[in-house]
Amino acid sequence: MKINNQLIQQLLEQAALSPRLRQNFDMRTSEQDVSQRMLNAIVPGSKIPIPRHPISNENVFLICGRLDEVIYDSDGKEIDRISLDSSQCNFGYVMPAGTWHTVEVFEPSVIYEEKNGQYKQDGTETLEEYKAKLSK
Fold it and tell me: Rounded distance, CA 115 to CA 126, Å?
């Protein structure tokens, strides 16, 4: 599997055409691999819900572009921003397990994301889901 400019440009083009304004590329090499490893191409305007991953850190490495990792408290109040900008050599962040976060994208960007646990079975929830559970 080659990660080169051709793949990155293809993912960014697909992201721009997607209703979600992002495109994932699965980096796992078998179905037995229950981690989450992917390239995520995201263009400005993409609205990503605020999730947290309770059992795993999320490793984020910027391949190209510029975005902020935005950190929230459990009330949805922004408490921190981590700027990732390939032109400034700010390439990544390790998001601690259980941290509410999302990204704000300033230019077409591709990140590599890695988390432990199988998607949908790893306890991940959005802030909206969490608040709905509290209000019941």
Answer: 16
Q: What DSSP element (H or E) covers 70?
A: strand 58-72
Give the model's pLDDT for residue 97: 96
Whole-angstrom distance, CA of residue 94 vs CA of residue 97:
9
Q: What angle do CA 22, 34, 104 make, to 5 degrees?
A: 25
| Contact yes or no for 114/28 (Cβ under 8 A) | no
pTM of the model as a whole = 0.92
Report the amino acid identity of residue 88: Q
Determine the straight-line distance between the first and last CA of the chain, rounded to whole angstroms. 46
Question: And the tokens for 81?
Answer: 């921003």
Amino acid at 31: E
